[in-house]
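Hey, I'm writing a tutorial for new members on how sequence and structure tokens pair up, and I'd like a real worked example in the thread rather than a made-up one. If someone can provide the structure for the chain below, I'll link this post from the tutorial.
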Amino acid sequence: MLQFDIEKPKDEVRSYLQEKIDNLTKPKGSLGLLEDLAMQIGWIQQTLEPKLSNPHHIVFAGDHGIAAEGVSPSPQEVTFQMVANFWAGGAGINFLARQHKIELQIVDAGVNFDFKPEDPIINKKIRKSTRNYLHEAAMTHEEMDLAIQRGADCVQACFDKGCNIIGFGEMGITNTSSSALWTACLTDIPLKDCVGAGCDHTGNIMEHKYNVLKQAKENYKGDNSPEDIIRYFGGYEMVMAVGAMLKAAELKMVILVDGFIMTNCLLAASKLNANVLHYAVFGHQGDEAGHKLVLKYLNAKPILHLGFRLGEGTGALCAYPIVDSSVRMINEMNSFKKIQVTKYF
């Protein structure tokens, strides 16, 4: 597997960042989370004048063999249909990317469909859908390694265009099932608490979904290492996101983390290299069962809680302007040293 050299940012700059933040023309701590974000981004970038450059967002798409077990009310063809909706500009992630002027890229990681060469999608396809992990591993070791590499390559291409802040999203029918298994296997959270309704807003399918996933977990005979859990239960789009996050951290980019699935990708990435967590900004807490629990496990402080459970990276992009505000705060507010305002705290 590709290895990543991810450094923890040096702490020396933190005291200088704190002094600058505390001496802006406001009561100390009065801008709350904006101050925390400014500290984190300045720390990542090792500067008192952090900046956000050429933001990108990548949506990885892939299908899952477990769909054959009826764990989602949506048929598998919805994956490729939604991919077409992405490039047509009509999905949730599209209006948010347009609103916040974020470059959107759509990547075929393993969609069970033959796209045309002229279709506006980045072709990184590993295979048409993973295998059914109720009966066998979702992917081979070689496929997992390739997915990690291709996810990393996608981020390198964004970085080469001057991007220093990047978000990730996904599209793949049944990928909340894979995420629930990653949570249960990579943490001490019971599977029952990890399984949510996914796109089934009625929740009618949850008992069947839980029983299938419980059986899949019981059938697993691997070595329980993070690498094997990721490979056995993952989706190609999820593993590409893992590789993408690790590469982004290696390149010292700010990572905008979305909902349940992308938080699980960060969880998986952290099991491969814990330093990735320093670069993560958690966009929101979604309403999918288990997301709050994974966030708590990671000691994360999400920016928003809007009742989202869409995916695609929508929660991450909704949080982007708040991240932008934090950088504007530290760069654009006057300090008490600059102007004649009595320090009033």
